[in-house]
């Protein structure tokens, strides 16, 4: 029983990381219909900036993380204006080629300045301190990750359901042209959604550095994982991404602990089953 | 549909002189490369094998409009099939190719039955998952595949009992080029046949093709199996030429590279597959030789420039130039 509970906690923490990184991808894919293979690159850049700030400039973890996320958002905005704006109009294959090109440039940039070794982020002593949950002790860091994931979900829910921006966003996801003809500035919605997604990816990359180590080839290594979360959750659905990320995180952790020999096979077979039965994902709408 | 109607006769078109050009150009280019770069034959052979692989992907992505990110599944199965045949049954290379094709076709058929019902994102993800399952299976089934160490020392006998694989790689290169030419001719016949035209129709509008009586799902499974067989041949070639099969044959990056090379060259034309592979691999090779750490800048910039300047791929460059000059 306690084994199952500890798998659950680890799986949930892992799932929260997946959720934070993937949810932005899900929103942008649902909204702009763009296959952004460079999304993981924002997590990489966030992690790399946090690494530089904590290791070289001696900033402590929290201000470094906040600054890194802000810098990523600041970098994402001109990218959206200059590059992605044109990429929305390409056909699917062109989008793949363009975003693969962008992710290569991101990897090459990080590689140029920091090399291709793992980039550790110095986190406070407190994060490594063990916390006794009764059935097991685990590092405080896991609890922070879980709390952050829940906060992100709650924040997104409030943003999308309760604000004017959220109404515009939902309208644009449902029908871009109708939304635009009603006077909604869809270009600005795109920009904000894109920057939001990039910032969340950076946050996920920094907080998840312990589980998914940050290094130059990070976006390619985990691209499949992020895309699977989006596909299983359903494009454009925040709650879908959340359920998919948690489910996949728990399933993957369970497979690794309990079935070390066939865990990964089991994981991918489960994904094939889900997608074969529900082609639009758990919460996706038919397109 | 007008494109289909204006074609005089498919059979004659496929057999006419025009269809010999690509084959002649490929053969001439390979001959020139053979004499110009006698010390890079191993690299040239890798390019040729990759061309076979990308051609097979062009059949499904370029002609039938089926976008997958798991084409390495068939390549890997072909490589393992050829490796196992060489180790346990017979070292004959042509038999290895046949088994490679069968291995690729079999896995394409099994996975295609599920895959060809899916579309878009779902299709991409299921095809990735299939490849991952195969990679894990290959890494766990140590008794058969050697696990993460791979199949060591795959050696093949001389071709037709006559041409032995030499150390420099001359025979391997010529052998691979012959396979490439055969595959190219076969692909031309397929895309020029009524079946190939049906595929183009399915790419344009599946519902219209269904309305005029084409069994869309069956056609898609058929082309997927055909492409799988050719990808299996490419894998088998790689296994025979390098003498190794490892679980890297199922790597996601291989599937992604194939897609990038094809789109770079121009999907939907057989020339596009060949040119895209050539340019991508040569630029990659040269950039990595000049600066082993920062070559990714060059590749990334090249992809962006091509996609912004030539959305139809490098193959559309001549058309573009002609149109630009006519206008001025």
Describe the protein.
The complex is a heterodimer of chains A (287) and B (328). In chain A, 75% of the residues lie in helices and 2% in strands. Chain A is built from 13 helices and two strands. The radius of gyration of chain A is 19 Å and the shape is globular. Chain A has one domain. In chain A, strands 1-2 form a two-stranded antiparallel sheet. In chain A, helix 3 packs across helix 9. With 328 residues, chain B is an all-alpha fold. Chain A binds chain B through residues 29, 35, 83, 86, 90-94, 96-98, 100-105, 107-109, 111-112, 220, 223-224, 227-228, 230-232, 235, 261-262, 264-265, 268-269, 271-272, 275-276, 279-281, 287, and chain B through 61, 67, 114, 117-122, 124-126, 128-130, 132-133, 136-137, 140, 252-253, 256, 259-260, 263-264, 267, 293-297, 299-304, 306-308, 311.
Distance between the termini of chain A: 42 Å
So how many helices of chain B? 16
**Apparent shape of chain B:** globular
Count every helix of chain A, treating DSSP H or I runs of 4 or more residues as helices: 13
């Amino acid at each position: 029983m306690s084994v199952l509970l500890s798998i659950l906690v680890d799986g949930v923490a892992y799932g929260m990381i997946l959720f934070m990184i993937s949810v932005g991808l899900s929103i942008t894919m649902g909204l702009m219909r763009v296959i952004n293979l460079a999304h993981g690159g924002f997590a990489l850049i966030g992690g790399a900036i946090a690494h530089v700030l904590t290791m070289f400039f001696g900033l402590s973890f929290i201000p470094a993380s906040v600054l890194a996320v802000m810098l990523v958002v600041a970098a994402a905005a001109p990218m959206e204006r200059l590059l992605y704006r044109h990429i929305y109009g390409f056909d699917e294959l062109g989008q793949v080629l363009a975003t693969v090109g962008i992710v290569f440039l991101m990897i090459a940039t990080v590689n140029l300045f920091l090399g291709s070794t793992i980039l550790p982020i110095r986190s406070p002593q407190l994060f490594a301190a063990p916390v006794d949950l009764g059935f097991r002790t685990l590092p405080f860091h896991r609890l922070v990750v879980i709390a952050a994931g829940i906060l992100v979900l709650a924040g997104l829910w409030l943003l999308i359901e309760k604000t004017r921006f959220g109404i515009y966003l939902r309208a644009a996801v449902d029908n871009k042209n109708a939304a635009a003809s009603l006077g909604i500035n869809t270009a600005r919605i795109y920009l904000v959604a894109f920057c939001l997604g990039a910032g969340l990816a950076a946050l996920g990359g920094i907080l998840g550095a312990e589980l998914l180590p940050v290094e130059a080839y990070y976006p390619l290594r985990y691209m499949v994982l992020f895309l699977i979360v989006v596909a299983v959750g359903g494009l454009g659905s925040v709650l879908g991404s959340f359920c998919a990320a948690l489910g996949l995180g728990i399933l993957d952790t369970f497979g690794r602990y309990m079935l070390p020999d066939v865990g990964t096979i089991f994981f991918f077979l489960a994904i094939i089953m889900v997608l074969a039965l529900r082609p639009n994902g758990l919460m996706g709408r038919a397109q | 549909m007008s494109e289909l109607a204006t074609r005089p006769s498919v059979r004659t078109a496929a057999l006419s002189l025009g269809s010999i050009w690509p084959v002649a150009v490929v053969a001439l280019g390979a001959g020139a490369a053979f004499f110009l770069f006698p010390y890079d034959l191993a690299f040239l052979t890798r390019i040729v094998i990759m061309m076979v692989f990308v051609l097979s992907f062009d059949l499904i992505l370029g002609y039938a409009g089926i976008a997958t990110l798991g084409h390495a599944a068939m390549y890997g199965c072909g490589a393992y099939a050829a490796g196992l045949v060489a180790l346990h049954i017979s070292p004959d290379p042509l038999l290895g190719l046949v088994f490679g094709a069968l291995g690729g076709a079999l896995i394409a058929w099994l996975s295609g039955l599920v895959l060809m019902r899916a579309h878009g994102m779902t299709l991409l993800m299921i095809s990735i998952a299939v490849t991952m399952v195969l990679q894990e299976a290959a890494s766990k089934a140590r008794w058969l595949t050697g696990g993460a160490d791979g199949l060591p020392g795959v050696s093949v006998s001389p071709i037709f009992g006559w041409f032995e694989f030499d150390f420099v790689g001359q025979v391997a290169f010529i052998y691979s080029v012959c396979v490439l030419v055969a595959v190219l001719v076969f692909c031309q016949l397929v895309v020029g046949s009524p079946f190939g035209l049906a595929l183009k129709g399915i790419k344009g509008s599946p519902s219209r093709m269904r309305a005029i009586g084409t069994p869309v799902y069956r056609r898609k499974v058929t082309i997927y199996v055909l492409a799988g067989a050719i990808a299996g041949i490419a894998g088998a070639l790689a296994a025979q030429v390098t003498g190794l099969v490892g679980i890297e044959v199922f790597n996601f990056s291989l599937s992604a590279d194939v897609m990038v090379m094809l789109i770079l060259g121009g999907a939907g034309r057989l020339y596009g597959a060949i040119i895209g592979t050539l340019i991508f691999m040569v630029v990659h090779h040269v950039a990595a030789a000049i600066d082993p750490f920062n070559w990714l800048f060059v590749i990334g910039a090249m992809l962006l420039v091509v996609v912004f300047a030539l959305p139809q791929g490098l193959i559309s460059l001549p058309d573009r130039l002609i149109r630009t000059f006519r206008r001025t």
